[in-house]
């Protein structure tokens, strides 16, 4: 195996596939990166067995300055190889492997020798059946992930809640995430050919969705394939493979309230800043709880009963009305929920001090199935 390539281009793709590579693994070879060279180009693969990322650098891409002299494949220590390529002195790098899987990396007067492993020992990725391929609206799909993923659980005791639950119809997708204390739900309009749609609902691990939003650019065309407990995302020459989470996702539609006793309309960004100020004091206490009071249409945020002191702030609302209310909640959960809306006016609807509160945009989207909802369970303080 021997080839020369533009160092920056290689570094970028090494960084992408390295996102899937664990620093420690029960299967030792998975701490390595598979490098395959064919006459068509170079393939890089990183995997932790749950998620695999594959990048292909084609020979006909002139920006790569790719020159292939010999084909072959090898597994190299990922972190070390990544750091070496990143710090080489010149624009191009030459990589050569001998019959003992020893790899020489050369750039200018710098030369590294790395001990590799036979590429045949690396686990094989699943075959892709491209006949059921869905085209996703990349920018809005990424936004949907970012507006829901924070509500997914970190507790492995209920694995199915550690992912994003994706429901599909031919004209919209719904993403739901919940850790049982809060729930995020976002719909986006899509145009899917019904013959291509081969699932109703799947649950995708949080890590997969996080890495997808970091790697894929908004202007790239994004495809999704679902097959045999796997989901595969393809954008240009990058492919992300992921297992699906098993188990029945809870029925969440019944959790979303359809009525309220108290309502206020606030700017999400301004309310977020007020919560952030109150959290300075709540984080000093044992319970990390902020109290919100609605009294005669006046809304106050406060933290009291704290050894470090107390804080109170009247909230600037657009409107506030309904029954008087005193409710407590986790400020960090509320900040996450508000941040997902950006700098717009939001409705906060309350049923009672012990029932979940609902946050939505004050002005509904004119586009059907384009709604974001955030549900937050209050904290009982007595």
From TrEMBL:
Query: What GO cellular component is one of the record's annotations?
Result: cytoplasm
Q: Where are the transmembrane segments?
A: none
Which keywords, in A-to-Z order, does the entry hold?
Answer: Cytoplasm, DNA replication, DNA-binding, DNA-directed DNA polymerase, Nucleotidyltransferase, Transferase
| GO biological process annotation, one example | DNA strand elongation involved in DNA replication
* Keyword rRNA-binding recorded: no
Q: State where it is primarily located.
A: cytoplasm
Segments forming domain DNA polymerase III beta sliding clamp C-terminal = 254-367
Q: Where in the cell is it found?
A: Cytoplasm
The UniProt record lists the keyword Transferase = yes
- Domain named DNA polymerase III beta sliding clamp central is located at 135-251
Q: Name one GO molecular function term.
A: DNA-directed DNA polymerase activity
Question: What binding partners and quaternary form does the record give?
Answer: Forms a ring-shaped head-to-tail homodimer around DNA.
This chain's function reads: Confers DNA tethering and processivity to DNA polymerases and other proteins. Acts as a clamp, forming a ring around DNA (a reaction catalyzed by the clamp-loading complex) which diffuses in an ATP-independent manner freely and bidirectionally along dsDNA. Initially characterized for its ability to contact the catalytic subunit of DNA polymerase III (Pol III), a complex, multichain enzyme responsible for most of the replicative synthesis in bacteria; Pol III exhibits 3'-5' exonuclease proofreading activity.
Name this polypeptide is given? Beta sliding clamp
Q: Which organism is it from?
A: Fundicoccus ignavus
